[in-house]
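Standup notes
- DV: blocked on the single-chain target, sequence here:
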Amino acid sequence: LVEGVRPDHWDLAGSALCIVGTSVILLAPRGA
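- DV (later): unblocked, structure below
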């Protein structure tokens, strides 16, 4: 938690989207 503020569902959705996007890029077959 930053500055005592709880993340709302938009923060959680945004971070999840970033993680999914990063994993897709990292785990995608090379040369695709």
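- Follow-up: The chain has one helix and no strands.
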